[in-house]
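dumping this here so i dont lose it
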């Protein structure tokens, strides 16, 4: 049998007191402790599931003390691989160097108060790299120094920024590539957009124009202030105006178009285009229409002139036959009147009647040739090439060119001497006769006008135009040379440009040489060259392929 131990009143009291204390402590501290544990669990869950990667670096051991789930997902490492590993595992060398710099800061034992955001990368398994935006803080906890790093993935943001930059550059290139002045203004007419062509036209770079008042950088637009202001204030939907400016090269025409911004912001876009070429082309088209009308009238007039001219020439011939021809009828009528026919003939010779009749006949025949050439020229449709005698084309063009000049003479002071050096053995050429005539007429009239434009042309004696035609190996060569004032280098460079002219306003379209060059080189596969220098005249050389 077991002996019962004697009761120990003191021990029972002690046990009762201990139990009473534990129960009391449990009742008073356990709920608070449990709440703290729940808070820690919630905080841990919050950290673990945060969208940003969190790293806790033990500064003394230079290893990671803790990382969250996002950090593991971004780097593809496990928690076991990350913990107790150095930061070089996931951070580039320059970032680790920065962390070292943080640790030697004087305030490291209190806290790292800087709010700097640095761009770096997270280096993961398989050489993966994730661009991140990182912030860090230094904390001294429990006698140990920790660096807490928060890394935010900016891959999508960087992609959006690149796309935005690409789109902006694309739109900027489109705007800068436009051959129009393009200016954007805000609600108070300050410049917010200034393309390269605006820089070219005004000489003001975009960085200097940005933010300045529109009329300070483009004062010529002040005349359209009402249109621009009304468009900015949405009172009208914009508009178009045409204006011109006088520049060194002459009058330049512009078109201004103003249209409002689309959206909530006030402002307008102003586009200014140089429409000089278009305006002149419209003038040329109107002039061409007039010339076509005149050509039709000329053809009708030529028919009307031919009829009386034919009667005049026939009448002259009949008069010449009746006073100089030994026709029996002439002598018979003279004897009936009692006048010897020989005396009638001598009287006409002494009084110059016969020579005057010859002159009238020659002038009439020349007029008939001019009318015939005009009629033939007006009927040509142009473009149809045929096998033609180039010598005949040259003769016709000379006849047409100088028939309208009353100052034309073969020689003499103040006149024009036309020297024709035409090789009779030149082969026939496949060409459009009317187009080659047009080229020659343009060149001959240019020579005459150039000579007349010289203030000393009468004092220099006879003005000379030489037309040469000769045969070469595979081409026929046609030269028109004059002793006029010639051209300087700058004028020579621009001579073949459309609408360029040295004549006063209203006296030329600037298309003569351009059209001639186009006809010879593009439509006849020929060569068109200009040889000129100031004070030494001008020579145009045209070469056309031989043969039909």
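and the seq i came up w/
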């Amino acid at each position: 049998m077991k002996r019962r131990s004697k009761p120990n009143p003191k021990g029972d009291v002690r046990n009762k007191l201990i139990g009473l204390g534990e129960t009391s402590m449990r009742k008073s501290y356990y709920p608070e402790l449990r709440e703290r544990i729940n808070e820690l669990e919630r905080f841990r869950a919050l950290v673990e599931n945060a969208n940003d990667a969190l790293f806790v670096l033990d500064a003394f051991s230079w290893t990671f003390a803790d990382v969250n789930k996002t950090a593991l997902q971004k780097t593809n490492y496990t928690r076991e691989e990350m913990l107790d590993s150095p930061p070089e595992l996931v951070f580039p060398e320059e970032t680790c160097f920065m962390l070292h710099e943080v640790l030697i800061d004087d305030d490291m034992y209190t806290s790292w108060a800087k709010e700097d955001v640095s761009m770096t990368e997270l280096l993961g398994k398989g050489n993966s790299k994730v661009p991140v935006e990182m912030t860090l803080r230094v904390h001294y906890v429990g006698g140990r120094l920790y660096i807490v790093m928060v890394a935010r993935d900016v891959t999508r943001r960087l992609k959006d920024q690149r796309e935005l930059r690409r789109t902006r550059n694309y739109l900027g290139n489109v705007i800068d590539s436009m051959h129009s002045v393009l200016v954007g203004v805000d609600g108070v007419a300050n410049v917010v957009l200034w393309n390269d062509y605006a820089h070219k036209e005004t000489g003001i770079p975009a960085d200097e124009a940005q933010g300045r008042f529109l009329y300070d950088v483009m004062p010529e637009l002040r005349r359209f202030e009402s249109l621009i202001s009304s468009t900015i204030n949405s009172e009208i939907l914009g508009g178009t105006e045409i204006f011109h400016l006088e520049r060194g090269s002459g009058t330049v025409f512009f078109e201004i178009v103003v249209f409002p911004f689309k959206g909530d912001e006030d402002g307008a876009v102003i586009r200014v285009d140089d429409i000089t070429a278009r305006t002149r082309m419209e003038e040329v088209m109107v002039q061409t229409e007039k010339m076509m009308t005149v050509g039709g009238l000329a053809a009708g007039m030529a028919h009307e002139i031919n009829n009386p001219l034919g009667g005049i020439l026939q009448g002259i011939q009949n008069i010449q036959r009746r006073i100089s021809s030994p026709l029996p009828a002439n002598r018979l009528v003279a004897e009936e009147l009692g006048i010897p026919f020989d005396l009638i003939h001598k009287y006409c010779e002494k009084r110059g009647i016969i020579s005057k009749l010859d002159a009238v006949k020659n002038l009439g025949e020349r007029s008939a040739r001019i009318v015939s050439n005009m009629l033939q020229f007006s009927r040509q449709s142009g473009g149809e090439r045929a096998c033609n005698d180039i010598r005949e084309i040259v003769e016709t063009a000379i006849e047409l060119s100088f028939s309208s000049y009353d100052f034309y003479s073969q020689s003499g002071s103040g006149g024009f001497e036309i020297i024709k050096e035409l090789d009779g053995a030149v082969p026939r050429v496949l060409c459009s006769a009317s187009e080659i005539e047009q080229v020659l007429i343009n060149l001959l009239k240019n020579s005459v006008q150039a000579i007349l434009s010289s203030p000393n042309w009468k004092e220099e004696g006879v003005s000379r135009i030489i037309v040469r035609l000769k045969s070469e190996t595979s081409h026929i060569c046609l030269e028109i040379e004059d002793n006029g004032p010639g051209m300087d280098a700058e004028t020579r460079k621009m001579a073949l440009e459309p609408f360029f002219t040295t004549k006063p306003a209203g006296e030329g379209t600037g298309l003569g040489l351009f059209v001639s060059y186009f006809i010879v080189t593009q439509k006849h596969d020929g060569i068109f060259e200009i040889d000129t220098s100031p004070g030494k005249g001008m020579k145009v050389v045209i070469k056309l392929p031989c043969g039909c």
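The CA atoms of residues 213 and 219 lie 10 Å apart.
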